[in-house]
# Entry
Amino acid sequence: MQKGFSLIEVVVVLFVISLLMTNILSLISAQKEWEKIQDTKTTLIEIEDALLGFAAIHGHLPYPASNPETGIQDKKLNGKEAYLAWADLGVNSYDQWGNYFRYRVETEYSKMPLDFKKIFGIIGGGSGLRVRDKQGNYLTVKSGDSRVAAIIFSVGSNGIADDDNSNLLKKTYVYDQYQKNYFDDILIYISRNILIEYLL
# Structure
């Protein structure tokens, strides 16, 4: 006599299959997110190279752009955070989630002629841009002369700037590891010393 599967056995098998499928889909989703993060980091490195190339040609860093769709620099935004002047740089305008890159340059590094006495802190304080991690540990000098010339960042998958990166009035930015549903901004910065190599 041939015995078939009972209803309970079928339900158990379907339950196990659904668990496996959920885990597989979760892994695929995590892999895709990781790939977007890595691709965005690669784009940010390309942007950094383009900014340094722009500085080598023009003798200063570009201003931010007021319109993210055109990506043309706007002198009125000198010293303020806005969008990357991607059209002037010839780079991608947005990250892997379709968000436009954010950009801020300290005024000492975007005006001509450059005031090297101010840049090197001989007169005045130099850059006030600072970078810290989520725990409040500063990755750059904490004082007014932090030696940061410019900040470029992606707001990540959630589409909004996290932590201090959301405060347009503050000059402190946060760089840290990706933490899902907690912190997903991807940030790089150009140091004064690296920039000066391209300017001299």
About this structure: Residues 7-199 form one domain. The CA atoms of residues 63 and 75 lie 6 Å apart.
